[in-house]
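Example S7 (structure tokens).
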């Protein structure tokens, strides 16, 4: 047995291990795991092959923070394989004098909270993946239209307001999820075939999306501040659910931060079930 550097030929085996323990791995985590700029180590067990791995990368304006994804196959746990991989990655990271290292792991199955807590990590936030396998939702006669550039100012202003408290409470920086910029404006125009806007008397009231290729199929879902508490979140969500089903999806998945209980309860009322919960933990080094 030995710890060695990752090779491209390891990818298939690593994904096999992951899917034995994770119901869903989102696009961002999968991209990070195999990022060419990362330090990726694998634990190679003789006559078996790769049974665990750790991918480590740096982020921030000055690359002053770190992120690691550590995973050991379920049947190979409690053999100190994870500890060996973590020690090797931490030895690699030490010269960078990082401020903080974050990691993510599943808690609703083979919970690793105790393991990471003993290493000094503390909980940051939780994330649910919810899934819907039902049929069409009731249709509304509200006016819901595809996104257009004329909605730009309202869209950016209201999405910032909608997610600001959640981002502040959970320390998601920057607290404003988007900025007013020409780059953002162009990105929204490029995504207009996937974005929908609910109008009330011609005014921007809510928005949601349909991205059939993403884990968070219908996000971001939000309601303008002046129209909250009136059921418009449910209406726009039902609309994009129907649109996703119309496009051929057999099931719909959403990602929602554990803190956002109101959204979790709304999605449950529409037939979504939580199929996976992960926690992000942080290790502060300074």
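Recovered sequence:
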């Amino acid at each position: 047995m030995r710890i060695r550097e990752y090779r491209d030929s390891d990818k298939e085996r690593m994904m096999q291990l992951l899917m034995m323990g994770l119901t869903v791995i989102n696009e961002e985590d999968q991209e990070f795991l195999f990022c060419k700029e990362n330090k990726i180590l694998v634990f190679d067990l003789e006559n078996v092959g790769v049974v665990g791995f750790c991918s480590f990368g740096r982020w921030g304006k000055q690359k002053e923070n770190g992120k690691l994804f550590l995973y050991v196959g379920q049947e190979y746990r409690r053999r100190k394989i994870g500890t060996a991989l973590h020690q090797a990655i931490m030895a690699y990271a030490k010269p960078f004098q990082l401020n903080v290292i974050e990691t993510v792991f599943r808690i609703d199955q083979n919970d690793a909270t105790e393991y990471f807590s003993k290493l000094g990590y503390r909980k940051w936030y939780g994330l649910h993946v919810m899934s819907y396998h039902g049929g069409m939702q009731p249709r509304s006669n509200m006016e819901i239209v595809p996104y257009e550039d004329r909605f730009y100012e309202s869209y950016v202003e209201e999405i910032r307001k909608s997610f600001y408290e959640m981002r502040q409470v959970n320390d998601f920086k920057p607290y404003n999820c988007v900025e007013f910029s020409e780059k953002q404006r162009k990105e929204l125009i490029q995504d207009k075939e996937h974005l929908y806007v609910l109008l009330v008397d011609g005014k921007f009231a809510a928005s949601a999306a349909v991205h059939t290729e993403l884990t968070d199929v219908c996000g971001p879902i939000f309601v303008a501040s002046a129209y909250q508490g009136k059921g418009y979140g449910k209406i726009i969500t039902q609309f994009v659910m129907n649109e996703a089903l119309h496009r051929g999806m057999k099931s719909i998945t959403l990602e929602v931060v554990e803190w956002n209980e109101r959204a979790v309860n709304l999605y449950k009322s529409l037939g979504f079930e939580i199929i996976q919960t992960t926690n992000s933990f942080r290790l502060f080094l300074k």
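Notes on this example. The first strand starts at residue 2 and ends at 5.
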